[in-house]
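Notebook p. 47: complex prediction with zinc ion.
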Amino acid sequence: MINEIVQELRWDPILGEWVLVSNIREYRPWRKEDFCPFCPGAPETGFGWNTLILDNKYPMLSQNPPKPTSHRFYTTAYAYGRCLVLIETPQHDVDDLSDLGVEKIVEVFNRVRELIAKYREDRFAIYLLYFRNKGVEIGVSLTHPHSQIYILPFIPAKILRELINSNNYYRSRKSCLFCDILREELADKARIVFENRCSVSFVPFYAHWPFEVHVYTKRHTQLLTDLSGEELYDFAENIFTILQGFKKLLNKPMPYIMVLHQAPLKGRYDFYHLHIEIYGVYRISGRLKYAAGMEIGGGNFTYDSTPEKAAEILRNAIQKY
Ligand code: ZN
Ligand code: ZN
Ligand code: FE
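Predicted complex, C-alpha coordinates below:
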Protein backbone atom coordinates (compact mmCIF):
# COMPACT_ATOMS: atom_id res chain seq x y z
CA MET A 1 0.00 0.00 0.00
CA ILE A 2 1.35 3.41 -0.97
CA ASN A 3 0.65 6.10 1.56
CA GLU A 4 0.14 9.64 0.49
CA ILE A 5 3.16 11.88 0.70
CA VAL A 6 2.79 14.39 3.49
CA GLN A 7 5.02 17.43 3.52
CA GLU A 8 3.55 20.34 5.45
CA LEU A 9 3.94 22.71 8.36
CA ARG A 10 1.77 22.09 11.42
CA TRP A 11 1.27 24.82 13.99
CA ASP A 12 1.71 23.95 17.66
CA PRO A 13 -0.83 26.34 19.19
CA ILE A 14 0.37 25.66 22.72
CA LEU A 15 4.05 26.46 22.21
CA GLY A 16 3.32 28.81 19.33
CA GLU A 17 5.77 27.32 16.86
CA TRP A 18 5.84 25.42 13.58
CA VAL A 19 6.68 21.74 13.24
CA LEU A 20 8.01 20.49 9.88
CA VAL A 21 6.07 17.30 9.13
CA SER A 22 7.02 14.98 6.29
CA ASN A 23 6.94 11.25 5.67
CA ILE A 24 9.17 11.62 2.62
CA ARG A 25 12.14 10.02 4.38
CA GLU A 26 10.16 6.81 4.69
CA TYR A 27 10.64 6.50 0.93
CA ARG A 28 14.42 6.66 1.26
CA PRO A 29 15.88 3.55 -0.34
CA TRP A 30 18.37 1.43 1.52
CA ARG A 31 21.90 2.57 0.75
CA LYS A 32 25.01 0.47 0.54
CA GLU A 33 27.15 1.13 3.63
CA ASP A 34 30.32 2.02 1.75
CA PHE A 35 28.72 4.23 -0.91
CA CYS A 36 29.14 7.97 -0.41
CA PRO A 37 26.66 10.09 -2.41
CA PHE A 38 28.80 13.21 -1.80
CA CYS A 39 32.04 11.92 -3.37
CA PRO A 40 33.01 13.10 -6.87
CA GLY A 41 31.58 10.80 -9.51
CA ALA A 42 28.46 9.86 -7.50
CA PRO A 43 25.23 10.14 -9.56
CA GLU A 44 24.45 13.68 -8.40
CA THR A 45 27.91 15.16 -7.93
CA GLY A 46 29.96 14.82 -11.11
CA PHE A 47 33.53 16.05 -11.17
CA GLY A 48 35.47 19.29 -11.18
CA TRP A 49 34.24 21.17 -8.11
CA ASN A 50 35.70 22.44 -4.83
CA THR A 51 32.38 22.99 -3.07
CA LEU A 52 29.01 21.78 -4.30
CA ILE A 53 25.44 22.64 -3.38
CA LEU A 54 22.82 19.91 -3.84
CA ASP A 55 19.19 19.60 -2.93
CA ASN A 56 18.60 17.21 -0.05
CA LYS A 57 17.11 14.12 -1.71
CA TYR A 58 14.49 13.66 1.00
CA PRO A 59 13.73 17.22 2.08
CA MET A 60 11.33 18.49 4.73
CA LEU A 61 10.59 21.47 2.48
CA SER A 62 10.01 21.81 -1.24
CA GLN A 63 9.62 24.47 -3.92
CA ASN A 64 6.48 22.60 -5.00
CA PRO A 65 5.04 21.26 -1.77
CA PRO A 66 1.82 19.21 -1.80
CA LYS A 67 -1.39 20.81 -0.51
CA PRO A 68 -1.32 20.67 3.28
CA THR A 69 -3.97 18.87 5.32
CA SER A 70 -6.99 21.06 5.94
CA HIS A 71 -8.21 20.46 9.45
CA ARG A 72 -11.32 21.84 11.17
CA PHE A 73 -9.33 22.93 14.21
CA TYR A 74 -5.59 22.88 13.57
CA THR A 75 -3.53 25.27 11.44
CA THR A 76 -1.27 23.99 8.70
CA ALA A 77 0.77 25.66 5.95
CA TYR A 78 2.59 24.78 2.77
CA ALA A 79 6.07 23.39 3.41
CA TYR A 80 7.44 25.84 0.93
CA GLY A 81 11.22 26.13 0.99
CA ARG A 82 14.37 24.27 0.24
CA CYS A 83 16.75 21.96 2.05
CA LEU A 84 20.24 22.18 0.63
CA VAL A 85 23.43 20.30 1.32
CA LEU A 86 26.73 22.16 0.93
CA ILE A 87 29.47 19.62 0.23
CA GLU A 88 32.58 21.39 1.48
CA THR A 89 35.28 19.44 -0.33
CA PRO A 90 35.67 16.61 -2.85
CA GLN A 91 37.93 14.86 -0.26
CA HIS A 92 36.02 12.19 1.63
CA ASP A 93 38.38 11.39 4.50
CA VAL A 94 38.58 14.69 6.33
CA ASP A 95 37.53 14.75 9.97
CA ASP A 96 36.39 18.34 10.22
CA LEU A 97 35.80 21.49 8.16
CA SER A 98 38.56 23.20 10.14
CA ASP A 99 41.10 20.64 8.85
CA LEU A 100 40.68 22.28 5.44
CA GLY A 101 41.92 25.67 6.68
CA VAL A 102 40.58 29.19 7.12
CA GLU A 103 40.32 29.82 3.36
CA LYS A 104 37.95 26.86 3.04
CA ILE A 105 35.65 28.28 5.72
CA VAL A 106 35.68 31.59 3.81
CA GLU A 107 34.79 29.68 0.61
CA VAL A 108 31.88 27.92 2.36
CA PHE A 109 30.58 31.24 3.72
CA ASN A 110 30.88 32.81 0.29
CA ARG A 111 28.59 30.09 -1.07
CA VAL A 112 26.14 30.85 1.74
CA ARG A 113 26.37 34.56 0.86
CA GLU A 114 25.41 33.78 -2.75
CA LEU A 115 22.33 31.96 -1.48
CA ILE A 116 21.39 34.84 0.84
CA ALA A 117 21.54 37.26 -2.11
CA LYS A 118 19.48 34.88 -4.23
CA TYR A 119 16.76 34.20 -1.68
CA ARG A 120 16.38 37.81 -0.62
CA GLU A 121 14.74 38.16 -4.04
CA ASP A 122 12.42 35.18 -3.53
CA ARG A 123 9.11 36.32 -2.06
CA PHE A 124 8.36 33.06 -0.23
CA ALA A 125 11.76 32.84 1.47
CA ILE A 126 11.66 34.38 4.95
CA TYR A 127 14.75 32.94 6.59
CA LEU A 128 18.01 31.21 5.63
CA LEU A 129 19.33 28.89 8.32
CA TYR A 130 22.90 27.67 7.84
CA PHE A 131 24.06 24.89 10.13
CA ARG A 132 26.65 22.15 10.45
CA ASN A 133 26.26 18.94 12.43
CA LYS A 134 29.47 17.08 13.22
CA GLY A 135 29.93 13.62 14.73
CA VAL A 136 28.28 10.21 14.59
CA GLU A 137 27.52 10.71 18.31
CA ILE A 138 24.85 13.24 17.35
CA GLY A 139 23.46 11.19 14.50
CA VAL A 140 25.45 12.35 11.47
CA SER A 141 25.35 9.39 9.11
CA LEU A 142 27.28 10.83 6.16
CA THR A 143 30.80 11.66 7.30
CA HIS A 144 31.87 13.35 4.04
CA PRO A 145 32.33 17.01 5.16
CA HIS A 146 29.15 18.97 4.57
CA SER A 147 26.87 21.59 6.05
CA GLN A 148 23.20 22.30 5.46
CA ILE A 149 21.07 25.26 4.50
CA TYR A 150 17.33 25.48 5.06
CA ILE A 151 15.40 28.14 3.17
CA LEU A 152 12.36 28.62 5.40
CA PRO A 153 8.92 30.21 4.97
CA PHE A 154 8.99 31.35 8.62
CA ILE A 155 11.45 32.68 11.21
CA PRO A 156 12.81 29.78 13.31
CA ALA A 157 11.52 29.77 16.90
CA LYS A 158 14.89 30.38 18.54
CA ILE A 159 15.72 33.27 16.21
CA LEU A 160 12.29 34.75 16.86
CA ARG A 161 12.95 34.66 20.59
CA GLU A 162 16.29 36.42 20.07
CA LEU A 163 14.60 39.05 17.89
CA ILE A 164 11.88 39.73 20.45
CA ASN A 165 14.29 40.02 23.38
CA SER A 166 16.87 42.11 21.53
CA ASN A 167 14.15 44.38 20.16
CA ASN A 168 12.74 44.94 23.67
CA TYR A 169 16.24 45.68 24.94
CA TYR A 170 16.91 48.07 22.10
CA ARG A 171 13.68 49.94 22.71
CA SER A 172 14.28 50.41 26.41
CA ARG A 173 18.06 51.02 26.43
CA LYS A 174 18.64 52.43 22.95
CA SER A 175 21.56 50.08 22.40
CA CYS A 176 22.24 46.65 20.92
CA LEU A 177 21.99 43.77 23.39
CA PHE A 178 24.69 41.84 21.53
CA CYS A 179 27.11 44.80 21.39
CA ASP A 180 26.58 45.26 25.13
CA ILE A 181 27.24 41.57 25.81
CA LEU A 182 30.41 41.81 23.73
CA ARG A 183 31.58 44.83 25.76
CA GLU A 184 30.93 42.98 29.04
CA GLU A 185 32.71 39.83 27.86
CA LEU A 186 35.75 41.85 26.75
CA ALA A 187 35.80 43.58 30.15
CA ASP A 188 35.50 40.32 32.12
CA LYS A 189 37.99 38.42 29.88
CA ALA A 190 37.33 35.16 31.79
CA ARG A 191 35.09 33.63 29.12
CA ILE A 192 36.88 34.93 26.01
CA VAL A 193 38.12 32.15 23.73
CA PHE A 194 39.74 34.01 20.82
CA GLU A 195 39.90 37.55 19.52
CA ASN A 196 41.21 38.96 16.26
CA ARG A 197 40.78 42.32 14.55
CA CYS A 198 37.11 41.99 13.54
CA SER A 199 35.66 39.22 15.73
CA VAL A 200 35.49 37.85 19.27
CA SER A 201 34.47 34.42 20.53
CA PHE A 202 33.48 33.52 24.06
CA VAL A 203 31.67 30.96 26.15
CA PRO A 204 28.53 32.89 27.14
CA PHE A 205 27.97 33.72 30.82
CA TYR A 206 24.73 31.74 30.39
CA ALA A 207 26.06 28.87 28.22
CA HIS A 208 23.67 25.93 27.80
CA TRP A 209 25.94 23.26 26.30
CA PRO A 210 29.27 22.16 27.89
CA PHE A 211 31.50 23.74 25.23
CA GLU A 212 29.20 26.38 23.83
CA VAL A 213 31.01 29.16 22.00
CA HIS A 214 29.50 32.23 20.35
CA VAL A 215 31.39 34.19 17.71
CA TYR A 216 30.43 37.86 17.29
CA THR A 217 31.54 40.32 14.67
CA LYS A 218 32.83 43.47 16.39
CA ARG A 219 30.92 45.64 13.94
CA HIS A 220 27.16 45.71 14.40
CA THR A 221 25.79 43.86 11.32
CA GLN A 222 22.74 41.74 10.56
CA LEU A 223 23.48 39.47 7.59
CA LEU A 224 26.48 37.44 6.47
CA THR A 225 26.38 39.41 3.20
CA ASP A 226 27.03 42.64 5.19
CA LEU A 227 30.58 41.56 6.09
CA SER A 228 33.60 42.97 4.26
CA GLY A 229 36.24 40.57 2.95
CA GLU A 230 38.42 41.26 5.98
CA GLU A 231 35.55 40.78 8.42
CA LEU A 232 34.58 37.49 6.78
CA TYR A 233 38.17 36.25 6.95
CA ASP A 234 38.46 37.12 10.65
CA PHE A 235 35.10 35.52 11.39
CA ALA A 236 36.27 32.34 9.58
CA GLU A 237 39.61 32.40 11.39
CA ASN A 238 37.85 32.62 14.73
CA ILE A 239 35.66 29.60 13.89
CA PHE A 240 38.72 27.73 12.59
CA THR A 241 40.53 28.38 15.89
CA ILE A 242 37.62 27.11 18.01
CA LEU A 243 37.08 23.98 15.91
CA GLN A 244 40.79 23.17 15.92
CA GLY A 245 40.75 23.70 19.71
CA PHE A 246 37.83 21.26 19.93
CA LYS A 247 40.03 18.60 18.32
CA LYS A 248 42.72 18.96 21.00
CA LEU A 249 40.36 19.26 23.96
CA LEU A 250 39.85 15.57 24.68
CA ASN A 251 41.48 12.41 23.39
CA LYS A 252 38.71 12.14 20.80
CA PRO A 253 37.06 14.59 18.36
CA MET A 254 34.31 16.81 19.75
CA PRO A 255 30.84 16.33 18.26
CA TYR A 256 29.26 19.71 17.71
CA ILE A 257 26.43 21.69 16.17
CA MET A 258 27.26 25.02 14.55
CA VAL A 259 24.54 27.45 13.50
CA LEU A 260 24.50 30.91 11.96
CA HIS A 261 22.12 33.33 13.64
CA GLN A 262 21.42 36.22 11.32
CA ALA A 263 18.49 38.52 10.57
CA PRO A 264 15.52 37.36 8.45
CA LEU A 265 15.84 37.84 4.69
CA LYS A 266 13.17 40.52 4.46
CA GLY A 267 12.60 43.65 6.53
CA ARG A 268 14.79 45.75 8.78
CA TYR A 269 16.24 44.35 11.98
CA ASP A 270 18.68 47.10 12.93
CA PHE A 271 18.57 46.02 16.57
CA TYR A 272 19.85 42.51 15.76
CA HIS A 273 23.48 41.40 15.55
CA LEU A 274 24.72 38.46 13.49
CA HIS A 275 26.66 35.70 15.25
CA ILE A 276 27.63 32.04 15.06
CA GLU A 277 26.79 29.63 17.86
CA ILE A 278 28.77 26.41 18.29
CA TYR A 279 27.63 23.76 20.77
CA GLY A 280 30.35 21.25 21.68
CA VAL A 281 28.39 18.45 23.33
CA TYR A 282 31.08 16.56 25.27
CA ARG A 283 31.47 17.58 28.88
CA ILE A 284 34.88 18.20 30.45
CA SER A 285 34.78 14.55 31.60
CA GLY A 286 34.47 13.43 27.96
CA ARG A 287 30.94 12.14 28.45
CA LEU A 288 28.12 13.25 26.19
CA LYS A 289 25.74 15.87 27.50
CA TYR A 290 22.20 14.83 26.63
CA ALA A 291 19.26 17.17 26.54
CA ALA A 292 16.74 15.22 28.63
CA GLY A 293 14.03 15.77 31.24
CA MET A 294 14.97 19.23 32.44
CA GLU A 295 16.17 20.47 29.05
CA ILE A 296 13.65 18.89 26.66
CA GLY A 297 10.85 18.43 29.15
CA GLY A 298 11.21 21.65 31.08
CA GLY A 299 13.04 23.83 28.60
CA ASN A 300 15.89 24.95 30.87
CA PHE A 301 19.45 23.72 30.74
CA THR A 302 21.59 22.42 33.56
CA TYR A 303 25.29 23.24 33.26
CA ASP A 304 27.63 20.81 34.98
CA SER A 305 30.70 22.99 35.41
CA THR A 306 31.10 26.74 34.87
CA PRO A 307 31.38 28.56 31.55
CA GLU A 308 34.55 30.25 32.91
CA LYS A 309 36.18 26.85 33.41
CA ALA A 310 35.13 25.64 29.95
CA ALA A 311 36.59 28.79 28.37
CA GLU A 312 39.87 28.29 30.22
CA ILE A 313 40.14 24.65 29.10
CA LEU A 314 39.36 25.60 25.50
CA ARG A 315 41.90 28.46 25.53
CA ASN A 316 44.55 26.02 26.79
CA ALA A 317 43.65 23.49 24.08
CA ILE A 318 44.03 26.20 21.44
CA GLN A 319 47.58 26.95 22.70
CA LYS A 320 48.54 23.26 22.17
CA TYR A 321 49.96 22.27 18.82
ZN1 ZN B 1 32.48 10.93 0.19
ZN1 ZN C 1 25.28 44.96 17.92
FE1 FE D 1 21.92 33.38 18.85
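Notes: DSSP finds six helices and twelve strands in the chain. Residues 59 and 83 are 6 Å apart (CA to CA).
Next step: compare against the earlier run before touching the bench.
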